[in-house]
Amino acid sequence: MKSNIKRFIAFWLLFSFLFSILNNATSLTEKRLVDFYKLPRNSIDVIFIGNSHNYCAFQPQLIDDIVPINSYIIGGGGDSIILSYYELKEVLLYQHPQLVVLETYTLNLYDKSTTEITYYSFLDSGRWSVNKTTGFIDNVSLDKLYTYFPGLRTRMRWESPQIYIKETVNLTKNLFSSTIDPGIGVDLQTDVISEYDFSNEKRITVDEYPSPSPEILEYLEKIRQLCIKNNVQLAFVTVPMVNQPQCIDCGYAPFDIENYAVEHQIPLFTFDPALFNHLHFVDFEHVNSFGSVIVSTQIAEDVAELLNLPINKDALRYYQKFIFSDYSISTENGNHTLLLLPMTTDSRLEYNWSVVDESSGEVVSQEGGVNHNSISFILPHAGEYEVKVVIREPSGDFELSAIFPVAFED
Amino acid sequence: MNLSTFLYLVFFFLVTLIYYLLPKRIRWIWLLTASCLFCIYASPTFALVLMLVTVIAYGSGLLIERAGSRKRKLLWLLMGMFLTVIPLFIAKYMNFSINVIEDVVRIFGGSLDWPVVEILLPLGISFYTFQALSYLMDIHNDVLKPERNFARFALYQAFFPKLIAGPIERGGVLLPQLMDPKPFDYQRMLDGLVRIGWGFFKKLVVADRLGVIANTVFAAPADFHSPLILLAVFAYSLQIYFDFSAYCDIAIGSAKILGIDLMENFNSPYFSRSITDFWRRWHISLTSWLRDYIFTPLIFLLRHKRSRFYQFAVIIIVFFVSGLWHGANYTFIIWGLLHGLYQVIEAALVKTRIRFCKRFNIDRDIFGHRFFQIVGTFLLVTLTWIFFRAQNIHDAGTILKSIFTLEGITEQSGWNLSLLDLPQPDMLIVLLGLIVVIVVQVAGHKRDLIRELNNQPLTFRWLVYLSLIFAVIIFGYFGIYSAESFIYAGF
User: What does the pLDDT look like over B321-356, one tens digit per residue?
Assistant: First the structure.
């Protein structure tokens, strides 16, 4: 009997070892979550928490230059408030920030199934924790508990098995490396929404959205209590969108954050909608790199005011040079001109322009290191083109990249 | 709870752990508790239906035994059977009966439009109802003493490994085992685990992928040409076998670990040399049930009739019931009747075939002849599966017409495998999986492979165990997309 038990244990250990390799190869990691565990303990002052609305908008490097803080972004695409709660709990295990800024779009996602799917990247990234496991059990239905293990949840994509080898190598490398992504969690979107999409998105309205589920309020309250318990200031921020989602059944239910913020005396940072137009969005709900500069510079000022911190005015002025109010594309005698309008006229920005044929990838026109904020070009034939621009300021190393779609019809 | 899910494995692990930690005399109470939880997890309503059938069968069993005369016994038996079948009739056959009445009225030029009541078919109802019926008939025939302890009888009805899709166990075999299971045995546990693993492999790696092909084509057969239709028909023929036998492997393996032997339900049915042989090897627990409780009594009743017509009529009746048991639809009835007809023809031609073989000097035992018989039987069985799987008779007709007219065989789209919704790598996996399963099937046709595996060196055994586990995990057709439930759980 003893030898049977020994054999059984040995077999189990061998199986566990092989299974862990499989789990590594199939895990769904989020870089900013993996990097989070590499941060020195209690080194972060401000945490931005939320989903894609959060990590597309705020640039910690930019904010940290303007205000003397260390900020970090947490959250994955589609995270609901339920997941944000568990993420914040995880953050507070390692960091003691002064301020938690919650991007409020997470409060508009009422469907728990969103959490179920998005939970995996949180679960797989970085270290194992009781908090993560509890959150998983709370959020995933009983019949899907097996999805705790990436190897069991993933139906393999056999058409490209090399991705699993690559993933294992990357993950192992990442686990043993101490370097953190220089973007500190930001995922800048460089595409500019097309004029057609922008006006379409703006026009569509939905008469009635579903009501937020009671769970939203429950988890928001949990977040509030967690901040109180840990003596952390909580603030809300609502990043602008072109429009609210236009589908009734896509898990969107607008939450009345303004009343909640007033009722609980929680600061709510908002942005002047007049500052945003088609230049500042990648799609109907996310800001792009242009929008991100506005949002980041303004939130830096808001954070400084809330925490009573000084502002580095030179840095602020430097980044404000990268704020653009609008753009236009005009055509005259077959000659196309794209004109970018900077907010401040005295800025000495350097533009690197290129026009690329989308179908062939061929560069149609190029202008590098110029000071003018426009490019004129002739398109050889009808089709879809992209105008790419990289904007720099000679006195600093900040770069703003963007891609404008240009459709040319005969 | 689907037996091919990881949730079941966790459930089963916990049940087994607690089971063996408890004193032997109360283990059956734990099994009953676990079986109740298993059923309630599926639906509390389903559990209530099971409870109702169990109460009826239990009470009727006692009344049959206590009845003084044969006549009274028969009366209680019929009453008990009638009441036992009512929930099954309401859940499964009421709407179909309404349809049949409407169709008959329509044939005679009338018009009826009775409302259809949407009822979800309780889990395993066909199985535990038939089990209860056999229990009552066995008591009536003095083959079995009724169980006096209600809880013990409830366990016989609800024992979770066989609850969803059988095997349909007899009281005389299962009840004593439930009360006195075999003690824990390491080797027995290993054998059970291998059996469960093999079931998972057949279900998740092979059957569920074949299911994608079959589901795609049978959902809209008119959209496909004959080559793909034929492929889907063969895919379904293999899917239903691997699916159902996989369920039985998991059920038998689970029961084995708990010290209980459930009856084997399959014996390489696709190696059958005739349809009669097929039914001796396919869904053995149902076939033997039909034989013992319908065929034999009817033949006994008609024992004085000399004409073979009566014997043939009984065969047809038995397979009509079999068809109806599988589903409340004309397609299932046709499926059953076709099997009945095949067997009648086989029985009628048996002497002719022997004479034919003698006349032309055909050795009936040579490989070529056996192979011809096996292939012929497989094709006939596969043909009937069209009716079993088609959504309605019209669809079955479309499929048959397409196959027999070779419709679209020369067209390029007729051979376009990408229309089957199964990616190419999955096609390759299913092909390799089929090869593995068939090789194991052939090797294990006349040998006990598990016993042979146990005689191999440790490293080889571990290699087999790990390969099986990881083949299921890596190649299993599951993931965040849930595994399809067992086909037979729908009956």
Answer: 999 999 888 999 999 999 999 999 998 888 888 888
In a domain, B394, yes or no: no
A146 part of contact set with chain B, CB < 8 Å:
yes
A237 lies in the same domain as A346? no
Distance of CA B380 to the CA centre of its chain: 19
Domain count, chain A: 2
- Asked which of A285, A320, A355 is the last residue of a domain, the reply is A320
Could you give the number of structural domains in chain B? 3
pTM: 0.79
A309 and A334 within one domain: no
Please indicate if any CB of chain A lies within 8 Å of the CB of B6. yes
Distances (CA, A) of A381 to A376, A404, A410, B255: 16, 18, 8, 72
With CA atoms as reference, the chain B residue closest to A5 would be B186
What's the CA gap between B245 and B227, in Å, rounded?
27
Domain-located, residue B397:
no
Q: Which of chain A's residues have a Cβ under 8 Å away from the Cβ of B186?
A: 1, 4
A315 and A360 housed in the same domain: no
Q: What is the mean pLDDT of each run of 10 residues along chain A (410 residues)?
A: 83 91 81 88 94 92 94 88 92 95 88 71 86 87 83 72 74 72 79 86 73 87 95 95 73 85 94 91 91 95 94 93 90 86 82 90 84 86 90 88 86
Q: Which residues contact A177 (CB under 8 A, 6 or more apart)?
A: none
Same domain for A117 and A31:
yes
Q: Are residues A169 and A315 in the same domain?
A: yes
Residue B353 domain flag: yes
Same domain flag for A266 and A335: no
- Domain check: are A110 and A168 in the same one? yes
Task: Identify whether residues B148 and B25 lie together within a single domain.
Answer: yes
Cα dist from A260 to A84, A88, A399, whole Å: 17, 19, 38
Q: Which residue is closest to B424 within chain A, CA to CA?
A: A159
Chain B residues touching residue A155 (CB < 8 angstroms): 477-481
Pair (A298, A371) in one structural domain: no
Nearest to B203 by CA among B464, B450, B8, B5: B5
C-alpha pair distances (Å), A276 with each of A57, A294, A325, B455: 13, 9, 8, 75
Answer yes or no: is B190 within a domain: yes
Indicate whether B159 and B70 sit together in one domain.
yes
Give dist(CA A228, CA A223) in Å, integer.
9
**Short-list B464, B47, B428, CA closest to B209:** B428
End position of a domain, from candidates B372, B389, B406: B389
Place of tokens 């007809």: B341
Q: Could you report the per-residue pLDDT of B381-440, keeping only the tens digit for each? A: 999 999 999 999 999 999 999 999 888 888 887 788 888 888 888 888 999 999 999 999
Q: What is the pLDDT of residues B176-216, one digit of tens each?
A: 998 888 888 888 999 999 999 999 999 999 999 999 999 99
To test the contact with chain B by mutation, choose from A5, A113, A143, A168 the residue with the greatest count of B C-beta atoms within 10 A, namely A143
Q: Residue B462's domain spans which residues?
A: 184-226+238-266+418-491
